[in-house]
Fold this protein.
Amino acid sequence: MEVLEEGGEPLLAYQVLARRWRPQRFGEVVGQEHVTRTLTNAIRAGRLAHAFLFCGPRGVGKTTTARIVAKCLNCETAADGPVPDPCDRCESCREIIRGVSLDVLEIDGASNRGIDEIRDLRENVRYAPTAGRAKVYIIDEVHMLTKEAFNALLKTLEEPPPSVYFVFATTESHKVPATIRSRCQRFDFHRVSTADIVETLKRLAAKEKIEVEPEAFPELARHADGGLRDAESLLDQAASIGDGKVTLAALRQLVGEAEDEVVLSIVGSIVAADAGEAFSRLSELLDRGLDPGRVALALTQALRDLLVVQSAPDKSASLGVGADLADTLRKLGTDVSGAKLTALLTLASRAVADLRRSARPRLALEVALARMCRLEDPGEMADLVHRVKALTADTGSRTPPTPPRSAPSSTSSRPETSGGTDPEPAPSEVTASAVPATAGEGVGAIWTGLLGRVKERKVMLASFLGHGAPLSLEEGTFTAVFDNDYYEGMVSRRENLAIIHEELAILAGKATSFRAKMGVVPAGAASAASAPAEERAARRGQKDLLEENQGLRRIMHDLGGTLLPGGSA
């Protein structure tokens, strides 16, 4: 990278690092070799397209690469056609670098999004370049153009004059119409790796004579989240605050971040189920003025790092876990199972989302912390089944035990309830914990646990689930069957699925998706085991009534209705 000056003086009194050290050639673009190599080969082969679509997150080099393409097309050192390596010394290159070239027009799609601006562009396209060989239109955030503007651009984009090139940049490619995408060569820019960001920042710090603590470089890269420009801007800001010196403590204070030691101590208290210590350390952070949302993010990041160290210790460094934290995380990992860690991470991620819409974020974070400290280890599937069975046995007076499926027609007696002796179900009926033959016994246990946990969060959703029955658990997907499309549709709503997925992850000890499908629900399968004897008898009477009246049954099915108690009378 080269800092250009004019007449021996800097172009500006001061330029931020991201602009001062902006890459000027393809070889200087960091982390996008798949893009720069393809463009270089296309220029050498004389097969450069007339329209490009550069997609990717912010700060990864889209506009920078577009400017380099413009220099390649207009560099005065080329005898004929574009060159893959512009000189950066000719008048054309220097004008493009300074952003004053009349042949390279950079347009902000957010503020020039209407049809009138695109019509002006179509008129100007017809005129020959002013000084160079090609006119280049660079439109940033092209997805912000209106539908009418895109339509006005189509014909020009499909058949532009030979000396006109378009480069569109966007962070949301899915918002660009397919008619536009199909007329462009698309390049997807990736997030810059942590290692590449750290290496680049070290070079810039050395050139700018900025003294940076070694531990601060990974922290800068982590906050940049794959955006090199963000990392350079943060380094610039931290250097200004520290008068040319960047320390890890000053950097964390700048971004409002909690110290790793404090965050890890909270994680350790959560693992040890020591709510008092966890609340004490949390209060220290919040009383210092740290934002609860930032603290929740820090906890989520720490749990993520702990999961990485536990699951892939050999790759922890390449996956963004600092070497100074690896030993502490490794010790913590010996005290918690993978299943519980996954469940904790699920709760922490939910807290981050909840805090964004909470009127009292501190209270929301404290509630989430309390839930994490009280979370029991879900263990393996066999342990979960055993615990659910034990829980059912302990509450036998309230929830009558269910006979094994292998003997549905047995005549064994059941415990009495307040309503008297519960009559045996008909052989064709299946109770709540009994499931179709395709599912294992553990599926019924998870279903029972899911109904209970969902009821604590959303009673109506638990009611919808109660009209279904578990079917199977295969390849990380829990399937339940419903015989009414109303309940199937309500359960499948996005907000309801989010709750079900979170609770399934805690119950199963790993990420588990939920699928509702239409089918035949065995009579009484959803909730018969937990219903009083009178209610089960009433349901059987309602079933008889519906079988006798097909018209009523059809109406009930189409409208998703249910018979109220006494409906069979």
Notes: Residues 489 and 516 are 8 Å apart (CA to CA). The chain is about 50% helix and 10% strand. The two ends are 87 Å apart (CA to CA). Residues 5-10, 397-440, 526-538, 565-569 have pLDDT under 50 and may be disordered.
